[in-house]
Write a structure and sequence with these properties.
By secondary structure, the chain is of the alpha+beta class. It contains nine helices and 16 strands. Strand 9 and strand 10 form a beta hairpin.
Length: about 375
C-alpha cells in the first residue's frame, strides 16, 4: 500500500493543480471585494496576475507532496533525511569500510633476506570483468631460510565485494613469490554503506527498544548493528533449546565475515546489557552449514574456441560460487535457510549470463535446507 500524499491535501481542501489553485485565487479575490474586469482567460493582464499568484503556490504544493510530506514517515522517508530518523532512535547508519585481513606469501628460494614492500598489490583473476586488489600495509621481510610470510593487507576500496573466500587473491608482481588468502583471512570485513531499505528495517526494529520488554525486534536491532550482519539474515529458535527461558539466534554472515570474533562480541553485549524477552538466556550462533560437492558439466557451442571455453568455465565457476555466497560479483539467486535451492533455476540464470553454452548438467538435484545454509566443499566445472 502506497501513501497518496496528494489525496491527503485534497481531502483537506488544499488545491494541488494549477486550475484548482486559480479557482481558489478567484474565490479569495471575490471574498475580498476586489473586482478585476478584464479577467478573461485571453487577457494578457489576467494571465500575468494569475501566473504570479498560482505558479509559486503550485511549486510549493508539489514540493510538499513529493519532498516534504514523505519525510514525516519512516515508510517513505528518503535518502536525504533517513539518517535523522536513525539519530532519533540511536540507530546510526552503517558506513562503508575497508576490508582488513592477512595474506600468505611463499617463496621457493629461501636463501637470504627478501623484502615484500608496503604497498605491494595482491589481486584476483578477473571476476565478472573486475579485478579486486588488496594492498600490503607494512614492509615485511623474509628472513634467511624462511619460506612463508603472513602480511596484513587493506582492500583498495571500501566494498562488500572484497570479502572473498580463500584462494581468490592469488596474484602479485613479485618475482619468485607466490601469494594466497588463506581460510579465516579477514580481520575486518569490507562493507558498502548500508542500503536504505535495510537501514529502514533496522530503525523500525529500534522502535522496540522504547519498551521495557525485549523480544525479536530488539535482538535483531542489536545484532544487525554490526557491519557484515543483515537484519534479514537473523533467525530465532524460540522453543527453549537449553530449557525454559532460553532461545537461540542464528546469524547468516555476509560472505566471508569473521564469524567467531563477531559472535564473541555480540554474545558479550547481550549478556552484559541484560536484554530480555525470550528469557534471560539468549545465545547467538553462526548459521549451521551443510557441505556439498558440486560438479557442473558444460556443453558448448561448436563455434567457441578452446580459449573462449576456458574463459567461460572460469566465469561459470565464479557465478556458481556467488550463488553459494562465495563472492558478490554476479546477480544470481542465493542459497537461503528454510528454502529449496533449484539447480534448474541456477542453470537458467547461467544461460542468461553467458553466451555460447548450450546445456548445463549438475550432479546434484535441488538442495532443501532447514535451519542451515548450503555451502560448497568443492566445485568442479568441466566440459561435456
Amino acid at each position: 500500500m502506497t501513501t497518496d500524499f496528494e489525496q491527503v491535501l485534497i481531502d483537506n481542501d488544499v488545491p494541488t493543480t494549477e486550475a484548482g489553485i486559480a479557482d481558489k485565487f478567484r474565490t479569495v479575490l471575490a471574498d475580498s471585494g476586489s473586482t478585476i474586469v478584464n479577467n478573461s482567460d485571453y487577457s494578457p493582464f489576467w494571465r500575468l496576475i494569475s501566473a504570479i499568484a498560482t505558479k509559486p503556490v503550485l511549486w510549493l504544493v508539489q514540493l510538499l507532496i513529493k519532498s516534504v510530506m514523505p519525510q514525516f514517515f519512516l515508510k517513505t522517508v528518503g535518502e536525504s533525511f533517513i539518517e535523522l530518523w536513525g539519530d532519533s532512535y540511536n540507530c546510526p547508519r552503517k558506513q562503508s569500510q575497508f576490508l582488513k585481513g592477512r595474506v600468505v606469501f611463499t617463496r621457493e628460494d629461501t636463501a637470504g633476506d627478501f623484502t615484500v614492500p608496503a604497498g605491494t598489490v595482491v589481486y584476483t583473476d578477473l571476476i565478472n570483468n573486475i579485478v579486486y586488489r588488496v594492498i600490503t600495509d607494512i614492509d615485511a621481510i623474509f628472513q634467511d631460510g624462511e619460506a612463508g610470510l603472513i602480511v596484513s593487507v587493506t582492500s583498495e576500496k571500501a566494498e562488500t565485494a572484497y570479502n572473498l573466500e580463500s584462494g581468490y587473491f592469488s596474484n602479485c608482481d613479485l618475482g619468485g613469490v607466490a601469494v594466497t588468502n588463506p581460510d579465516n583471512w579477514i580481520d575486518q570485513v569490507g562493507a558498502d554503506i548500508e542500503e536504505i531499505e535495510a537501514y529502514r528495517t533496522r530503525i523500525r526494529n529500534a522502535f522496540n527498544t522504547l519498551s521495557h520488554y525485549h523480544t525479536d525486534g530488539v535482538y535483531k536491532y542489536l545484532i544487525s548493528s554490526w557491519v557484515g550482519v543483515s537484519e534479514s539474515n537473523i533467525w530465532f529458535q524460540h522453543d527453549a533449546p537449553r530449557g525454559p527461558g532460553t532461545a537461540n539466534a542464528y546469524i547468516l554472515f555476509d560472505l566471508n565475515a569473521p564469524a567467531e570474533s563477531y559472535l564473541e562480541t555480540i554474545n558479550r553485549q547481550i549478556s552484559e546489557e541484560g536484554y530480555h524477552g525470550h528469557g534471560d538466556d539468549v545465545i547467538a550462533y553462526k548459521m549451521p552449514e551443510t557441505e556439498h560437492d558440486l560438479i557442473a558439466t558444460l556443453y558448448f557451442s561448436d563455434t567457441l574456441l578452446d580459449e573462449e571455453k576456458d574463459a567461460k568455465k572460469t566465469q561459470v565457476y565464479n557465478a556458481i560460487y556467488a550463488a553459494f555466497r562465495g563472492n558478490a560479483a554476479y546477480e544470481v539467486t542465493l542459497t537461503e535457510p528454510f528454502s529449496r535451492f533449484s539447480f534448474t533455476n541456477l542453470a537458467g540464470e547461467l544461460f542468461d549470463l553467458f553466451d555460447g553454452i548450450e546445456d548445463i548438467e549438475f550432479n546434484l538435484s535441488s538442495i532443501v535446507s532447514a535451519l542451515t545454509i548450503p555451502r560448497l566443499s568443492s566445485l568442479t566445472v568441466v566440459e561435456g
